[in-house]
Design brief:
By secondary structure, the chain is mainly β. The chain contains two helices and 16 strands. A 14-stranded antiparallel β-barrel has the order 1-2-4-5-6-7-8-9-10-11-12-13-14-16. β3 and β4 form a beta hairpin.
Length: about 300
């Protein structure tokens, strides 16, 4: 199932299809990602069974996403983005996890994001988003057999000055529970090379641009993952759910006019973990590293928007 906090990260991607003067975002911010691939490693996670046996794991995540424009007009754009995510607990130090060994889980998530941006004027926008997805441990079952989840949101953005823009809105998520959260956006450039980017409750970042092609961040990002764990002997299911905050340093580099990469490393603080009743988390926080390779929005689409 697609998670509500991470969903906020993609609120403004459709804006990249607009002419520069009509899209939200400030000079120096990272370019819009059209197609992206991400790989993440988080070593040193320890889990324990009710029998007291422990094992150490490295959590690995692979994620790919691509935006497909549906309509691009001067004051309106809509796009769809199918995505696929896999997560795997690679065992490093094996205890006896009996039938609940996490390395046997085959965690998968598939879904699609829909995003629409309405340009009210040269300094005001309404950004609407929707997501539908399915996420589960597919070992012995199929994603077709797990419930569908959704997230919808709407944000009003306003550029207050050439160096400041603000926004507010609301997000609604339906997965295991029904959740409503406020959304607050604040972007500000202090100077030509420095600024802050805030999107609560997802991200707080300080940005430094040493050159036109390089961006350094000090940032904290929240992310949530939630997977259904079907029980083979009954119609019921357990849930594996975690909420983390990634804190660290990121380096974003434009490699060419159409390609870029980002490296993000630091400390992942686990705020909450829900596991099947026979497994408990002993150490769920620790270091992490993420590598992101992406293609930018094609120049032909940007010119079409103009």
């Amino acid at each position: 199932m697609k998670t509500p906090i991470c969903f906020l990260l993609f609120q403004v991607v459709c804006a990249g299809l607009f002419a520069q003067q009509f899209k939200p975002g400030l000079p120096g911010m990272a370019p819009t990602k059209w197609i992206s691939y991400r790989n993440m490693h988080a070593p040193g996670r320890i889990y324990q069974t009710a029998q007291g046996n422990t094992s150490r794991y490295t959590l690995e995540e692979n994620y790919i996403k691509a935006y497909v424009p549906i309509a691009i007009k001067r004051h309106f754009a809509i796009a769809a983005a199918p995505y696929y995510r896999s997560e795997h607990f690679e065992v490093k130090s094996l205890g006896s996890m009996a039938g609940e060994q996490l390395s046997t889980w085959n965690l998968r998530s598939v879904g699609v994001d829909f995003k629409a941006l309405i340009c009210l004027d040269s300094a005001g926008w309404i950004i609407n988003t929707a997501n539908i997805s399915k996420s589960a441990n597919v070992s012995g079952t199929s994603l077709a057999d797990v419930p569908l989840t959704y997230t919808v949101s709407s944000i009003f953005m306003k550029r207050r000055s050439p160096n400041t823009e603000m926004g507010f809105g609301v997000m609604v998520n339906r997965s295991n529970n029904f959740l409503v959260l406020p959304v607050i956006v604040y972007n500000h450039n202090f100077a030509n090379k420095t600024g802050v980017e805030i999107m609560l409750p997802h991200k707080i970042a300080w940005r430094y641009n040493p050159s036109a092609n390089d961006i350094l961040y000090l940032k904290a990002e929240a992310n949530t993952r939630s997977y259904f764990l079907p029980q083979l002997t009954t119609d019921n299911h357990d849930v594996f759910r975690r909420i983390d905050v990634d804190m660290g340093v990121a380096y974003n580099r434009s490699l060419t006019s159409f390609m870029g990469a980002e490296l993000f490393a630091g400390y992942r603080r686990n705020l909450s973990t829900r596991l099947p009743g026979t497994v408990v988390a002993v150490q769920s926080s620790g270091c992490f590293i993420t590598f992101d390779l992406y293609l930018k929005v094609p120049a032909s689409l940007r010119r079409k928007a103009e």
